[in-house]
Amino acid sequence: MEFETRLTEIADKVTVALDQLIPPAQGPEADLMRAMRHAALANGKRMRPFYVIETGALFDADHKALLRTAAALECVHTYSLVHDDLPCMDDDDLRRGQPTVHKAFDEATAVLAGDALLTLAFKILASDETHNDPAVRLRLIERLADASGATGMVGGQMIDMLQEASPRDLNTITRMQRLKTGALISYSVEAGAIVGGASANAKHALAGFAQDLGLAYQIADDLLDATGDQNVVGKTLRSDEAAGKANFVTILGIEGARERINLLAAQARQHLDFFRGRANILLHSVDYVLDRTR
Amino acid sequence: MEFETRLTEIADKVTVALDQLIPPAQGPEADLMRAMRHAALANGKRMRPFYVIETGALFDADHKALLRTAAALECVHTYSLVHDDLPCMDDDDLRRGQPTVHKAFDEATAVLAGDALLTLAFKILASDETHNDPAVRLRLIERLADASGATGMVGGQMIDMLQEASPRDLNTITRMQRLKTGALISYSVEAGAIVGGASANAKHALAGFAQDLGLAYQIADDLLDATGDQNVVGKTLRSDEAAGKANFVTILGIEGARERINLLAAQARQHLDFFRGRANILLHSVDYVLDRTR
């Protein structure tokens, strides 16, 4: 219960922060800002901001600095959804319970709104209003670029695109997901640690936690895609099935996928032993991932 | 002659730098890096890198720092070309004398290669290999995000998209171009000044120079679009005419556009008086802009 309250609180704060950070809709280009707002202010779970803020709290990091860092990360996550949903990519109509940006506006606006959200993320992190010292800000920017660029998220999306309808084995899918979704989830935990000035050992434990959690989260996502209710989940489901794409569930089966999630969740919890009970809220977040699939 | 030699020298150095900065083409996602290289290593004039480096040289700035800053800026310029050429945007087949990225690869790869180039720009600027001190790196990042995001280049492209085939007056077109192309040209000059630690007065003179030059450059581009030889220019021409779009030439006429360019060029040169003959290479660059249209 405490976990879900915190998740909702953080989601609300991040939405307010994004509302202030995205430029107002003005001039002939106003639809660009409207599209950015449509995507970024929609009802998302805000899991990545949650991990930034709760990881940073472990080290008593400044809350304002964490919130802005979380908002920047959510801009990157949102841009990736807008571009992934494009007709030339996954061609999805529904996202966060509402029409995708290219449906609500048009394709050109969706490309540009994504571009602008990505750019805004770096603007937010570079700004001195972020209250981090310059070295911390630069580290956050460099690691975000690593996690989201060609050797991270965008690279993973490229693999996903190329391998549609072609046979994929477990190793290929695992690497693709580590890049496509894992890198940004790992960044969310790392960012909290960077802002909080965590020790190398603490960072190492958190990196292990994030890697196991990220993979569990993705397998849970594939389970949800196979078994969930579209009206509850708020995005197009059965998309892998429709595209003839292999994923964790088509390879492991539903029971095999559940077992794998449980194993990864146990490992993720073990990494948190390092914090000796001070990371309870992160522990609860693991249960939340499990609960999504029940 | 000196000017063209310098422009070629800088173009070659920037291409070598980009070749080293773009990740190698490896793994199943190799086409992503190939597409980034296709776009970024193609034969561009590299005007923006030229202005970064030659403006920085006015203040004896570190050459390595300038070159990496220039390479980052060229990544942003290149990404904007890749996305602007997409079928849902300007739908162009030819760029820098070769097929556009979505023609040589496909649309999804073009979207992702653009995303990855934009992300790489911020990675390059944040990295300590850039040899700038942290405050300078942060300032470069923040101003690049301003110049290229929703309130800069992307905002300008949005106006350009929305107003296709709708009536446009000189004020609207001037504002659109100030955002779409002017902001990044201004940034190129500002970046050199930031890296070089220029005084506020020097920055002010350079900002005036860049604003007049950028507008002259865009009017010259419209002239070239109306009167140039596609085989020489290396990109699709008569595109505004084909789309029924108003531009500086359709509004001012060919002679009126030439007059306006001459006026702006004279103003641009005046701003350089501040440097009392030390900005000769920048002066010559103004002639180059004029020469393009003769």
Automatic annotation (TrEMBL), chains A, B:
One of its GO terms (biological process) is terpenoid biosynthetic process. InterPro entries: Isoprenoid_synthase_dom_sf (IPR008949), Polyprenyl_synt (IPR000092), Polyprenyl_synt_CS (IPR033749), Prenyl_diphosphate_synthase (IPR053378). GO terms for cellular component: cytoplasm. The keyword Magnesium applies. Coiled coil: none annotated. One of its GO terms (molecular function) is metal ion binding. The keyword Chaperone does not apply. Belongs to the FPP/GGPP synthase family. This is Polyprenyl synthetase family protein.
